[in-house]
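Notes to self after the Tuesday call (sharing in case useful).
The group wants a holo model before anyone commits to mutagenesis around the pocket. I volunteered. Ligand is protoporphyrin IX containing FE. Logging inputs and output together so the record is complete.
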Amino acid sequence: MSNTLLHPVTIFGLSLLVLYLLKRFWSKRKVSNLPYPPGPKGHLIIGNLFDIGKRETPWIHYSNLSKEYGDMVFLESFGTKLLILSSVERVTDLLDKRSSNYSGRHYLPMLCGEMKYDEFFSNMTYSPEWRKQRRMFHQHFNATVVSRYHPIISSGVSRYVEDITASPQRFRRHIQYYFNRLIFRSFYGVEILEEDDPYIKQGAETMEGFIVAGIPGSFMVDMIPALTYVPKWLPGTGWKDFAEYYRKKSRQARDEPYDHALKSMREGTCEPSVASRVVETLPPTSDPARDEEEKAARDVLTLGYIGSLAAAMTFVLLMALHPEVQKRAQAELDEVVGFGQIPTFEDQPKLVYIDALLRELFRWHSEVPLGLPHTATSDDIYDGYSIPKDTIVVANVWQILRNPAHYDNPNEFNPGRHIKDGQINKDILDPYTVAFGFGRRICPGRHLSLDTLFAIVTATLAMFDISPPKDDAGNSNMKYSFNSEGAVL
Ligand code: HEM
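Result:
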C-alpha cells in the first residue's frame, strides 16, 4: 500500500490535484462580484501558463493578445495573476494616479528567493527599506544635482574620442568602457584602467542574471514555488546552478568595488564620489545601526551598474542604417557648435534635432520592452473590474511606443516626428515618459542616463561618420540583431 502511494506517478497525480484545488480556491477569491479584466480562457489546471510562460519576445505575444481582448489583458496560472496594460491611459490610471497601490514588486521565487536579488531596492517590495534606499539614491541623482557629474562625463568623452580614433573597429568595447569608467568614477571615485576590469565583468553578469530571471514566467519555480525544495541532485535542476552562480556574482559586484573605494578613501587616493558622500553620512562604527546602513549603501551603489550601453549601441546601428538622419544631426552640430567641435551641456538647449533624435532612439527601440513589473499591494476595483492584491502589473512599453494613434508609421525611425515649428512638439507623446517606467518606481537614474547619452551621441556625430560595413563590391552587407545589450552588429 505504502509503495503504491510513494510511486512517482501517484505523487505527481496527487500534486496536480492539490494544485488544481488550490487554483480553484484562489480563483474564487475575487475582490467583489466584479469580474477580472478580460483575457484568454485558461486551460484546466495550468490556466494561462502558455501565455505567461517563457518565450523569446513576450511583448509581441502580449501585443497580439491586446488586439483581441483590449488594452487590459488578465492572465492567471497557478495563483499567479498578471495584468498587462498596453495604453497610456491605463498605465496613467493605475501606475501613476494609483501609485500608492501599484508600486510593489512581485516576489519572484527565482530572482528573489534563489538569487537573492531582492537585496537591491529595484527588486524590493514597497516597504520602508525600499523607501530608505530609494531616497539615498535620489539624493545623488535627482535632476538638480546630476550636473555634478558633467566634468566626469566630459573627460570620459575625450578619452572615448581618442579610443575610437585609434581603433574604430572596436567601437563596441570603447562605448562599453566609456559607460563603465563613468559609473565607477561617479559612484566609487575609482578609475577603471583596463577594459577587462573584473568589476566591469561582475556588473555585466549581475545585470545579465536580472534580465533573464526578472521576467515573470522565465523559470518554472516562479509558477510553482514549491519547486524550491527540490534537491539539487535531481535531473532537470540546472536552474539551481544558474541561481547560485548569479547569487555569487551579484554579491561580488556589491562588495568588491565598495571595499576598493573604502580602501582608497582611507589612503586618500580617490576623488569625491557617491560612495565617499554616503560613507561620510553613515553612523559611527560603534553604532549598532552602522552595519545595516552600510549594507543599504552597498546595495544602492551596485544599482549604478545598470547602464545605457544598450541605447548607445542602438544609436550606432540607426546611424549606419539612416545616413540622412546622421547628416542632418551633423549639420545642426556644425551650425550650433562649429565644425569638429564637441558640444558641451550648455549647447544642449539649442540642439533641437539632437534632442528629437534621442527621443526617437528611445521610442524606436525600448531597452526594457515590458518595463519592470509592478504589483498591487491591496485589492482594487477599476473600471468595473476587480484587481486582486498581488496581481503583477506589466506595462507593454514596446507596444505603447509603437502605437499608430501616437506616432504615424510607428515602425519608421524618424526623429523629425518630434519637431514642430523648429521646437520639440509637446503634443506628441514623450517617449521618456514611457521608456523609464512609471509612478513611484520611475527610473531614478534617468537624468544621468540621458546626460551620458547626450555626451556620447554628440561627440560621435561631431567627430566621426558612421557607415555600414561594405563587401568587396562596395555593397553594404550589414547584419544585425538585438540582445540585452542592444543592437549587435
Ligand atoms: C537607457 C537607460 C535606462 C533605461 C531605459 C532605464 C529604464 C528603467 C525602467 C523601465 C525602470 C523600471 C521603472 C518602473 O518600475 O516602472 C528602471 C528602474 C530603475 N533604474 Fe533605470 N534605466 C536606465 C538607466 C539607468 C541608470 C544609468 C541607472 C543608475 C544610475 C538606473 C537606475 C535604476 C534603478 C535604481 C531602478 C529601480 C527603481 C525602483 O525600483 O524604485 N537606470 N529603469
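Two things stood out.
Residues 121-122, 134, 137, 141, 303-304, 306-308, 311, 367-368, 371-372, 374, 435-438, 441-445, 448-449 surround protoporphyrin IX containing FE (CB under 6 Å).
The first strand starts at residue 72 and ends at 77.
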